Amino acid sequence: xxxxxxxxxxxxxxxxxxxxxxxxxxxxxxxxxxxxxxxxxxxxxxxxxxxxxxxxxxxxxxxxxxxxxxxxxxxxxxxxxxxxxxxxxxxxxxxxxxxxxxxxxxxxxxxxxxxxxxxxxxxxxxxxxxxxxxxxxxxxxxxxxxxxxxxxxxxxxxxxxxxxxxxxxxxxxxxxxxxxxxxxxxxxxxxxxxxxxxxxxxxxxxxxxxxxxxxxxxxxxxxxxxxxxxxxxxxxxxxxxxxxxxxxxxxxxxxxxxxxxxxxxxxxxxxxxxxxxxxxxxxxxxxxxxxxxxxxxxxxxxxxxxxxxxxxxxxxxx
Length: 318
Description:
The chain contains 15 helices and four strands. The relative contact order is 0.10. It has helices at residues 2-24, 31-43, 49-74, 76-85, 89-103, 107-110, 117-127, 132-156, 158-163, 165-199, 206-212, 227-232, 244-250, 270-281, 293-317; strands at 220-223, 240-241, 260-263, 287-289. The radius of gyration is 25 Å and the shape is elongated. By secondary structure, it is mostly helical. It has a four-stranded parallel sheet, covered by helices on one side. The chain is 71% helix and 4% strand.
């Protein structure tokens, strides 16, 4: 017990910094339990409050600054990268982006308490052009509130927890090992099932959609991108703007005898595939996600425009 206490007293702040930094850059490390443990060490006199709080805030600001600069430099592809890592990429795209755009920079204060938003808020701040001073102000307040609350919780119960150290030292290794294996198995199974389910949904290509749009009865188009993004970046003409939550409530407004095409602006068409699956479960049989989403549509439209201009120049030259 004495050796364990000495080790935590000597390296507690360093370990706290490393785990908090890892979690904030997007790795699956649960930092909040460690913050609580850090508070216990503060309460038992094995770790200085200033060291614990300073390490957690510094790690948070460093990780967030990396994502903020990445958002400024690379823009939306950074969100695509983060959402490929996430187990719930549709929620990553829709809910977190909607929340940030709706509440603005103040969302950085509570971002650490909301799964998904914690990592995606800093690059979003860079993408929307939030100034560096405002970003640092709100992000520091958020880091202070998040880290301070975790440490304070552990500090408040440090007296009772110290008495349980001797017993927990014996059973904790086996318990942690079991939890790691169970968590890894659950995450892997969920990710595999989700990937397989969404990958098997048949897609409609942009070329097929363009052909169907010229028919007497064109497909119904549903744009499931976040409203703020859809209003800033207009989608396909005649498309109905509707979130997946709204689609689940208002699916009866759409005809079942016509083709329905759902599109988004997310990695691997995740949100549109989810929308198609939702409608299929409601009895729709002629529904498809648009392969490549709005980016594929824009790329095709741009390419067609370039081709038309080239043909016009050739005609004039002839």
